[in-house]
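On clarity, I found the account of how folds are encoded harder to follow than it need be. Since the whole study asks how a given chain folds, the encoding of that fold should be made plain. The format is easy to grasp once an entry is in front of the reader. For illustration, here is how one protein appears when written out as sequence plus structure tokens.
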Amino acid sequence: MDAEAILHELTQAEGLPRKALEAASARRVEMLPLFLAEIEAYLALEPAARVKPTPLFFIFHLLGEWREKAAYRLLARLLRVPGPEIDAIFGDGITSTSHRVMAAVFDGHPEPLCEIFLDPHAEQFVRSRMFEALAMGYAERRTRSGTGNPYPPRRVHGDPATSAEFCLVRLAERYCDARIGRAKNSGEEGFRSRLY
């Protein structure tokens, strides 16, 4: 199956297009720029022109499965489109998988996630799940780095003590620390599998 056929199948699928998904993963290097271009093209459209079928649901989940960091900021922009559009693209994926995908593609910079949950025009369930994505991304980076703060020092505009972004990142870190502490105290293994 060539790239054009893959995109067609992902766009017109009525069920789970297993063959197209497998073909896309087998041609990942070729499909990645095409997938990113599909998202860019969608975001460039006027809202009225976005009503046609898209492959974005499957693209979003494939990029998460691939843990494609290059897609992180673009996917964050996609998740900020108005609620009716988000619902048309993702359906129940808003609450069941959006946070997992964003945690998988998280590149260590919390700003795009913070922009989503600070955006009053973003869909409310997406906003709430991005807080979980931030905590999950923090947990992943902490697991890989051992201990300490996994985020590099960064400039925070204004007073760090009152910056909403700074406070939310720190809150996500504390949330994750508490979950890790509970897992350790109760003797549970596989904290990451529970968090995800």
Remarks:
- The chain has a mean pLDDT of 80.
- Residues 124-145 form the longest helix (22 residues).
